[in-house]
Amino acid sequence: MSLPLRAHHVAGLAPGPKLIVLGAVHGNEVCGTRAIERVLGEIERDEWRIERGALTLVPATNPLAYARGTRVGERNLNRHLLPCDPARDNEDRIANLLCPWLAAHDVLLDLHSFRSHGQPFVMRGPADNDGALEPFAHAAAEGRLAAHLGPVRIVDGWMSAYAQGAARRRARGDVEDADPSYGVGTTEYMRRCGGYALTLECGQHDDPAAPDVAHHAIHQAVALLGLADLPLRPPAAVFECLCLTEVIDRVHADDRFVREWMSFDAVRAGDLIGVRHDGAPVRAEREGRIVFPDPAAAPGHEWFYFAAPSQRPLP
């Protein structure tokens, strides 16, 4: 089964940057979809106009998953996002359309939500570098956009943490998800194409405020980039900047957490986080935060991430 991928493209008559906004990359994360629908209504009613550059809005980036109300259609669209021939599944077919769209734009805002309760946060890319894993040259512009979206918690380190986890999988002899390129999603692909990109986690899936967070962020991005004459709110005075330092996999179905963790719960060095199926404890090696805990993770997949304070302030 496949469903068409729909995008709305509005181009100003004056030159400017090209922004693409994605909703429902995961089909059960609909806050971005609702916010995009709201923005489309505003544009249709001529409440404001794209004067410069271009704005592309994709309400449901994974239409099959969105129609089913599930996270994925046949696999996670936000992993191993690359054009491929032949396309093997629903997400490959989407990638073959989506990747050229991303490459044709300068900036990406990807709108998500998360399972547990917690405050919204932004995931940014690496510092400028010419390394092999994730070379990048727009950290200042990306940081400026992150500062204006609304949330005050900023997280980086995704690709380096994922690459470390992939190395652990290879050492265990696991072949699934053991290639660092499997960590490439929408934002990583955008950076590979020479643009910059942010993931905005707008809140818990069912939080009625999450669509408002997404809507505010779209307005802020449009205003900051100068696409329309919308008011730009100044950034907060203080931010909490964190860096993902490692990913811990669930290696057996009987691995369990010792409590119900929520993203960004604080831990101290030595705190017990979980217990392996053979009774071995999983403890925090240092003070930090638990991020993306998934008690239902399949064996061999990400169980949780660990974050520590980032040494990278926002511009």
Outline the structure in words:
This protein has 315 residues and is an alpha/beta fold. The protein folds into two domains: 8-224, 3-Layer(aba) Sandwich (Aminopeptidase), CATH 3.40.630; 248-309, OB fold (Dihydrolipoamide Acetyltransferase, E2P), CATH 2.40.50. The protein has helices spanning 31-44, 63-68, 90-103, 139-148, 158-172, 186-192, 210-224; strands at residues 8-11, 14-22, 52-58, 107-114, 121-123, 153-156, 196-204, 240-250, 256-257, 265-267, 272-275, 281-283, 288-291, 301-309. The strands form two sheets. The protein has an eleven-stranded mixed sheet, sandwiched between helices. A hairpin with a 5-residue loop joins β11 (272-275) and β12. The model has no long low-confidence stretch (mean pLDDT 94).
